[in-house]
């Protein structure tokens, strides 16, 4: 699988629960740089020349030691005697073998070897492990760049949602023509207030690209007057018309098109959840490192990719029912409202309950599409499931980070958060293998239930749900969301 891309994100976890994020670079085999074999530098296998087309493999920490910028999109420059990665934020350069920089800083690098397994003749990549832990396990190996599906074509048949859009409707630009965002927090709030799902995906891709390539003024969570996210992200009138209050009214989702539509709806809310956790809790937790925002920006990008893959597949499979024409629900956001005052609760309920439950049910859904012979939908669902494991991993990583910061035991704290923020039992069967890959050992979730607190009738929830309504305007004009964009240039 290393031949599919030139860069991969790696996440390691030790038996002590420590996380280590790395980036693997696979360079062209045409390089003329000679391997270095000194003990304190990069070590290549003597047989690496025989292992083409793998070429040169390098592993280094995924964030710049200067200010924590994401190095996944670093420029690679080849010098006479070295290959360097150049940080996109402030142009700090780091030797991929030694980690040394001309600025005096040093990034952590790890030796890589290619060994041929004598039992089956398959080449295997081995890497040196960090010193500050034991029994390190690779829990994530994901390409840095994966293609999005092309947007589905506008339906031409009658009765579709496209007919409800007036001819004179204003098409918003990806970057607003006035008061354009300059920080990640401003982009987060703008995207949360973007009702059009296609534009939400486009803005997510653009904002994450700006972050990774150092084109934002700052993350912005330490600003004196940070932007405020909406209580509930607005939805276009068309989607509101098809939104039901009780998910049980949707019935059984047996038809493939109905299932894909329901999954796309979940992914649209998941995009908002990834941006909301940054915008809502970043300003109140100024000690959050840049890696937190890199992880959840990547999550927002993943969810956008999932949404585009699902809606594109839905448009191909069932042109008469494009996304937005079938009933959907907004119950996932109920949990976001309940956890709106606590980052620890948000991580626990959204990422270690909801998304972990997704790991439990996804294999069954995948198997259903496999039995039906729908290979294209199957491929989409397999990509989504692999990504979702990494999302639970991120939730576990930052939940345990907060517990360590606050001197709390992660397992007992998680179970306490679930008791306070969940209703009913966390039911199996559980996907123990993928939960374990994501860091969730059985003591997290076995025999776990929340208190029957009746939170769906909570007054604060009812008040927050009012933000989902729209205001009627003049006949023939599109409705406007009651929530407006709130950010400034600061």
Automatic annotation (TrEMBL):
Protein name per the record = Rieske domain-containing protein
Q: Can you give the residue ranges of the Rieske domain? A: 33-125
Q: Which domain of life does the protein's organism represent?
A: Eukaryota
Keywords in alphabetical order, please: 2Fe-2S, Iron, Iron-sulfur, Metal-binding
Source organism (scientific name): Piloderma croceum (strain F 1598)
Tagged with keyword Chaperone: no
Q: Where is this region: Disordered?
A: 218-248
Q: What SUPFAM superfamilies does the database record attribute to this sequence?
A: Ferritin-like, ISP domain
* Molecular function (Gene Ontology), one example: 2 iron, 2 sulfur cluster binding
Is the keyword Metal-binding in the record?
yes
